[in-house]
Predict the 3D structure of the following.
Amino acid sequence: PSQPAPCCALLLGFHRRSRARVGMAKLHRLNMSTMRAAILLLSNVGAVLCKSSILDKDLSYTRYPKYPPYCSVPEDMEKRGVPPLQSSDLKTKLVHVTSVIRHGARTPWSDQMMCWDGYWQDPELGIWNCDLTTMISPPSAPFVTEVENDPTKVNDEIGAESGSSSMFLFEKRYDALNHPPHLTNLLNGTCQKGQLLLKGYEQEMANGRHLREAYVHDGLPSSSGPASTDDRMRLFDLTGDDDGSASLGGRKPYEEPNLRYRADDEQRTMMSGQVLLRGMWGDIIAKDSAETGENPVIIVHTGDYSVDVLAPRESNCPRLSELREEAEQSETFQTFNTSEEANILRTLMVEELGNDFTDNIHDCLMTTMCTDRKLPDILADYGSPNDGGGKYGGNIFQRLIDYNTFSWCYNLAHNDGAYSKLGMGPLWYEIMSNIKPFLNGDDSEPLTKMALISGHDSTVEPLLASLGNSIYDGTVWVPYATMFNIEIHESTNSQDEKSHFFRLILNGDAITSRVPGCPDDNDLCDVSVLVDIVEPFARYDPDCATRSPADEAGQNSIKTAEAAMSTPSALAILFVTIFFSSILGGVTTYVYLTRQFPFCGHNNYRRGSSGIALDNRKGTFTSVEDAEHHEKGVDEADGKRTSYGAAEHDSHTDAELL
């Protein structure tokens, strides 16, 4: 169906080409009565199954009169489309887009999350059952057998495509532990902790539609987005032939290298990206599958979650812990943490809700409200007028959210985003690896037109903070299904020398003008500005070593000196200081050696207790040798040789006299 039911579950599988390739199930080979309603999907997951036991309330937002932006209700998601490119005399074309998303609405991240008293004991709050399930398909047996017989064919893509698809699917259900309270899943129902919910599924479908309208020109009468009305925005033009593959190096638009899909190995991020791609390419994939009888495959690139770089990881980078502690010890944070407002809110949580759950405020409140579950009465005041009455004042919900946001996010922006720059350096390296070939004019091989990165709030927020406080200042927690796009535009004014520009889009708003060094009156900015900002820290091997106090003092001294030398007046002062210091040093040295200030008469050398001294005798010596001979003659005439000890005896040498 053109608008499939939102209950559809994703099909996860393996890549056949690496002995684990997901087969998009061919509909004509599946038992339709068993499937009920199957629709082609995309991504590494090829099909979705819709279950019939879905209630409308699963997608409703009806309990509260108003919902915070964090919930990303359908009305808010519809406003987040990519805006048109501003009019400009500059002729450009869009050549690349990196889209970084946060996953959609989810279940609580942990069963150990402490909220208000009675949270986990309340059947409405503490039991999480999910209708969205995961489908798994085995790899194509014929190709696996072929590779086992001849391992050199593991990268034979043509051979991979020729393998027959799987004949069956597995549906993964979390319902084996169903004997409460003694034997249950962590969330006491059929949901995984942190699992994508149906509402999150719909949010990412909306993101996929936004990307389709913004960057894909399909020539359909129903299309009305930027790509259909502005040829500068046509990243993918499908009107040249049936699917545009002729202009895409013979590849489908959803295949590599045209598309690179990256996610960490979490169910909510993996599935969010897959659903987004279904919203963007679902009809094209269904058409291709029907015409070719093959199972289209979209590769997802991932890694071990514990060491992946889609979020700062203090366990892998000790320096991050130090930077966070520095932020929390700063005057700004301490003033906030000891403020009257902070004390009032902590007292409120203990006296009215039974616990100080500062660390979990956001998750406790938002996973409850955004899934239409019941909040305690004292917290159910979002959007109500702030009457300032009562023991704790009004707008308690929003005040708690603001308090928790600053507690968690301030360190991301502190000290010019030092924490974020270090933590997101490896991811920026990945991002720039897809962008730089366009800037360098490297067309030796097909380039990535679109890169999709599916991550978390802890991906998007530090990524923004690394661009400067004017982009992200640590006072906002990004909503579910946030989408941050980095567009690269190429000038078409000259065929000889091409220039490039970038545009930043965050949840439907162009924010390029907020980047330091970009014009205020245009949403395109020279790409050199972006490169200059991120290049210093965009590296896959960040310096994560901890700093000793001495190291910190040295670094601070260097920074202070650099700041002091950054103005012409400071340089002039430095020059004058060095000049007069040189003169003073010369005079001091002269006085020490001659025991006389300059221009105060001439003196003759004589040996004294120090080995060299001055004498105002009128006699002079024409050479050092004459002086030494004279001294010896005097001593011998007296019938004895003066003894000065070893050190003084050495003073007779020519070098000492000199």
The first helix runs from residue 32 to 35. DSSP finds 21 helices and 19 strands in the chain.
